[in-house]
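The following record pairs a protein chain with its ligand, fe (ii) ion.
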Amino acid sequence: MFKNLIFRQLFDAASSTYTYLLGDPQSRQAVVIDTVFEQHFRDRALVEELGLELIAAVDTHCHADHVTGAWLMQQSTGCRIGISKRYGDAMQGSDLRLDHGDRVAFGKPYLEVRATPGHTDGCVTYVTDDHRMAFTGDCLLIRGAGRCDFQQGNASRMYHSITEQIFSLPDDCLVFPGHDYSGRTMSSVAEERAHNPRIGGQGDERDFVGFMENLNLPHPKQIAVAVPANQRSGKPDDDKTPRPADWGPVRQSYAGLLEIDPEWVAQHIGEVHVLDVRQREELDERLGRIAGAQFIPLGELKNRLAEIPKDKPVIPVCHAGMRSGQATVILRQAGFPRVANLRGGMLLWQQIGLPVVNSTGLAG
Ligand SMILES: [Fe+2]
């Protein structure tokens, strides 16, 4: 199904939001739909690990339940920020103002923009060029539809958006919503047309509007914070870009590990504490050791935490960076505030020609 497309669906549990990453396998260009502020490091790491060049971070609408990560994505990748032009001047920071019929290209593939107002005036649905996938935001949900009772919501308008812009897509077009609160990940146009209890089956506009106007939902908890922040495309009040660490260029991998590049560690070797967690017998092997490193095999680490100084950032290292990744987790859980795994371990360290000492402590 995804032969000609790189596709990932991501989830933010706090707001039950889905984020979608779509990439072109040929050009490696990509777009992300509805990235969440708090998940920025995760989403950013995935883009990087898949070797993608992010062209745009687009939102399906101005969200009321979470803050978009679009501005952070622009800061870290230089991508454009896309949202509907129908919000007018209320929306700041976006440099890709989209309207019905526009295309968002990433290499050869593109997303077609369909205006699907109703939840808000500026809601759009993004449809892949082959009409096989539709990203419906908070318009059509799986067996549901987005609420229409705040932010210029209008149930009648939503009825027309769904029936004319989404249900007109092919039966087998997959529906990927902006949220799901019950663990459902995707649906299809035919399925929703038949089984959606709000708008499927034989119901008409009056039935839909009657249903939607009597949902009696509580006011969204985040609305007072989320809407103003989203009107700045997710730019924080203080303009500060959150970083995984304040002491060095630490990155969070998609696996969730904090890691740092060997070149930086070599240049700042006096400012960090290198902790080698390999087995004793490995230390004399050809890869050598980093001068000044402390040795505690991973299996002994939990019982010897008191031996590790806390006055400097701790950089665990091992053969290839896996066991030291586990050491990084153990140290973080033990309350070490500044820890980052040495990316690639001694293998990468030696491969790029950084200095080592041998078993006698002499430069090797
Ligand atoms: Fe929403």
